[in-house]
Design brief:
Blueprint lengths: L15 E3 L2 E6 L2 H13 L3 E6 L6 H15 L3 E7 L8 H9 L3 E5 L17 E5 L3 E5 L5 H4 L10 E6 L2 H13 L22 E8 L4 E2 H12 L3 E6 L6 H12 L3 E7 L5 H8 L2 H6 L3 E5 L7 E5 L3 E5 L5 H5 L3 E7 L1 H18 E4 L8 H23 L11
Parallel strand pairs: 3-4, 4-5, 11-12, 12-13
Antiparallel strand pairs: 1-9, 2-8, 3-6, 6-7, 7-8, 9-10, 9-16, 11-14, 13-17, 14-15, 15-16
Helix pairs in contact: 1-2, 6-7, 8-12
């Protein structure tokens, strides 16, 4: 049941929606089959926004689905980040455009108009016909799909149906930045009663637009946690407020479980995260390192009722630089499914880290400390870069 006096679970009409359908989606074939089906079933519009769109087997497969949709008259709009997807060839991009796909880069890099290092489009979201949406942390690349030789990077998304999707579509149109003429679609409110006990909330972080919603959601959820917290944290380097909230949760007896990277695509970041382990251990927080593949998940579950899934990393860059989107879900059935997955992840692919297993020789500790200071400082500088624009007077 919803606690009426609990900030984490309070329902405000302007922020929450009842969902007609919500489903946990896993990286690998589950995600990309869901993504393809969503594009193939679209009749009127598709909006796709992602940080990385690779020109590999998986990228070509999704590009083909987008071109097919455009060929049958669907208005297809794609926005990809100018830094994350800078490796795309001109031939690949022009082929999409010539096929009728409306494609734009967000803040091409490098740019002489502004030093947009930190303000990147970090969304991983697609909407179809304003009534279906897929939101998570999964980019379009073969490493997220997996191959016979390599397991997919561990990550999550959520499939939504219902009236909330029209607002998600609106956010995508705003970020796309140009006037888009959409055929006015009718939305039936009747479908929203199918899962009347499921509530979702779309959360954004974008400092330019004064959005700090995801950070607040995490902080509120952790502060109000009573029984358990599960966090999958890629590039995990939370700021002082969130660290304090986690420590306080551990002190008051909440079962705090952190699933962190045992294998990372950024080894320096992994060393920086390890500097925090001693603080976490001292306050009863359990640490599990995922070793089957790279951990890329950005999700949390609190008290077996509240979950958040999206693109937001628990670090300074996501909090103050990038454009992020998460979905908060208040539903015990969804939470049950998610917890079953998280426990399976811990049991089948993680190594629990204990204080005794840490290399605490002086050199190892200095190495972790140096990695922490360097990484935190770098993230702060990168996040601040969008606010320095020496060419502004010429715009």
């Amino acid at each position: 049941m919803i606690k009426q006096n609990d900030e984490m679970f309070s329902i405000h009409r302007k922020e929450h929606y009842s969902a007609s359908h919500s489903r946990l989606v896993l990286s690998g074939s589950d995600y990309f089959e869901t993504l393809e089906n969503l594009i193939q079933s679209a009749v009127h519009t598709v909006h796709l926004q992602t940080y990385i769109f690779d020109e590999d087997e998986t990228g070509k497969r999704i590009a083909s689905a987008l071109k097919d949709a455009a060929s049958r008259g669907v208005a297809v709009f794609v926005m990809i980040d100018g830094f994350g997807s800078k490796a795309l060839s001109k031939t690949f991009v022009e082929d999409l455009k010539q096929s009728g796909v409306h494609l734009r880069f967000f803040s091409r890099f490098p740019s002489f108009q502004s030093l947009n290092l930190g303000r990147r489009l970090h969304h991983k979201v697609i909407t179809a016909d304003e009534n279906t949406a897929l939101i998570g942390g999964i980019n379009i690349a073969v490493k997220y799909h997996g191959s016979p030789e390599q397991a997919p990077w561990l990550d999550y998304a959520i499939l939504l149906k219902g009236n909330a999707c029209s607002d998600i579509d609106k956010i995508c149109r705003q970020i796309y930045g140009k006037k888009i003429r959409h055929k006015k679609l009718e939305h039936s409110s009747a479908i929203d009663v199918l899962e009347k006990n499921v509530f979702i909330r779309i959360r954004q972080n974008d400092r330019f637009r004064r959005k700090n919603q995801i950070s607040r959601s995490y902080l509120s959820a952790i502060k109000n946690a009573e029984h358990s917290i599960y966090i999958t944290g890629s590039y995990f380097l939370p700021g002082p407020k969130l660290r304090k909230a986690l420590v306080n949760a551990g002190k008051r007896g909440v079962d705090v479980n952190l699933i962190l990277a045992g294998v990372s695509d950024v080894p320096l970041f992994q060393s920086a995260t390890a500097w925090l382990y001693d603080l976490l251990f001292r306050n009863g927080i359990k640490i599990f390192e995922w070793n089957k593949s790279v951990l890329h998940g950005k999700a949390a579950l609190v008290d077996d009722r509240w979950a958040t899934i999206g693109s937001f990393n628990l670090n300074h860059l996501s909090a103050y630089g990038s454009i992020e989107m998460n979905v908060d879900v208040l539903d015990e059935n969804f939470a049950k499914t998610f917890k079953t997955n998280l426990k399976s992840v811990i049991e089948t692919g993680c190594r629990q880290v204990f204080p005794i297993s840490q290399n605490n020789h002086l050199f190892a500790r200095l190495k972790r400390w140096a990695a922490y200071v360097l990484t935190r400082t770098s993230l702060k500088l990168i996040a601040a870069a969008p606010y320095f624009n020496p060419f502004k007077k010429f715009e």
